[in-house]
């Protein structure tokens, strides 16, 4: 069984049935699976339902129709909701909204303290989480003086300290400069390799999706496409919903359109390589 399973999930923000009938659902008949240790990218333009999916996957929201199973347990099972939330952690877009304490290590300790862990375990988790994101030397500092990228690392450490099996980054790099964006992605991908974590990266940067094993494209609350990296090669289909395929794919298609015969490429390096040849 997959670690996370969405089975024909529909979700309306309107609580009463009558107004729900008049509006369209934020998530509409969505099904997909996430395997353990997998890197999944969810892409789609604003309002396509990505953040709603994230909250459905850790039980912050409950489906109106269908089921979300986490490690075999339905998120509708109220008795297991705490368990589900500790297995699936979400890092949101704005790190400023995720800071709760004035000292960095206290901020990271906040989650484990709420789990009721003993102080030795909390200490070891906080040290490990800060080390994992490369922020150990800032432990005693204040989060307010950090750069956006550093704050987002602390937010990731706060989620890591809960030892989740799945980490969802919900546009967590969107407010960062390209260098910090890459650094955060490197930290996340290293955690997948070294800690066997599962990563769900929600992003509107198509480049970030190139790192994923599975790509889910959302449009108007529905799954528009899902599959492996081949999804990113479909530039016309992506363009039809206002998304751009990776630059290398577009350049290759443009050149082939004027008579070249270049093979499929995904990354800039692959494109450069076949152009040189
Ligand atoms: P994305 O993360 O892809 O931008 P969202 O999941 O945030 O998309 O939003 C999906 C749809 O649900 C949008 O139409 C949005 O306006 C609506 N929506 C999101 N959050 C709320 C909310 N708290 N109350 C009502 N509607 C919402
Ligand atoms: Mg969102």
Question: How would you describe what is shown here?
Answer:
This protein is of the alpha/beta class and 277 residues long. It has two domains: 4-245, Rossmann fold (3-Layer(aba) Sandwich); 246-277, no CATH class. Helices cover 38% and strands 20% of the residues. It has eleven helices and ten strands. The chain has helices spanning 17-22, 50-57, 81-87, 104-114, 119-132, 148-160, 178-195, 206-209, 235-239, 247-257, 268-276, and strands at residues 4-11, 27-34, 39-43, 65-70, 73-74, 88-91, 166-170, 198-202, 214-219, 222-227. A six-stranded mixed sheet has the order 6-7-8-3-9-10, sandwiched between helices. It has a four-stranded antiparallel sheet with strand order 2-1-4-5, with helices on one face. Helix 7 (178-195) links the parallel strand 7 (166-170) and strand 8 (198-202). The longest helix is centred in the C-terminal third of the chain and has 18 residues, at 178-195. The radius of gyration is 20 Å and the shape is globular. The relative contact order is 0.15. Bound molecules: adenosine-5'-diphosphate (ADP) and magnesium ion. Adenosine-5'-diphosphate binds at residues 13, 26, 44, 46-52.
């Amino acid at each position: 069984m997959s670690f996370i399973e969405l089975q024909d999930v529909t979700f309306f923000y309107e609580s009463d049935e009558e107004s729900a009938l008049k509006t369209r659902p934020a998530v509409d008949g969505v099904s997909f699976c996430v395997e353990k240790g997998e890197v999944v990218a969810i892409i789609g333009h604003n309002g396509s339902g990505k953040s709603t999916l994230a909250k459905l996957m850790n039980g912050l929201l409950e489906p109106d129709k269908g089921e979300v199973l986490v490690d075999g347990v339905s998120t509708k099972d109220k008795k297991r909701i705490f368990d589900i939330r500790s297995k699936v952690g979400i890092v949101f877009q704005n790190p400023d909204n995720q800071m709760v304490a004035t000292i960095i290590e206290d901020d990271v300790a906040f989650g484990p303290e709420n789990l009721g862990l003993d102080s030795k375990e909390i200490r070891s988790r906080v040290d490990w989480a800060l080390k994992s994101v490369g922020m150990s030397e800032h432990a005693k500092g204040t989060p307010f003086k950090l750069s956006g990228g550093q704050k987002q690392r602390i937010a990731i450490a706060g989620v890591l300290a809960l030892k989740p099996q799945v980490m969802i980054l919900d546009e967590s790099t969107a407010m960062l400069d390209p260098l910090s964006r890459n650094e955060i992605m490197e930290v996340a991908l290293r955690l997948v390799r070294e800690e066997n974590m599962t990563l769900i990266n929600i992003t509107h940067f198509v480049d970030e999706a190139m790192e994923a094993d599975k790509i889910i494209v959302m449009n108007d609350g529905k799954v528009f496409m899902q599959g492996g990296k081949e999804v990113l090669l479909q530039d016309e289909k992506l363009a039809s919903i206002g998304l751009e395929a990776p630059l290398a794919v577009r350049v290759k298609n443009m050149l082939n359109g004027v008579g070249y015969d270049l093979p499929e490429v995904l990354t800039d390096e692959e494109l450069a390589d076949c152009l040189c040849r």
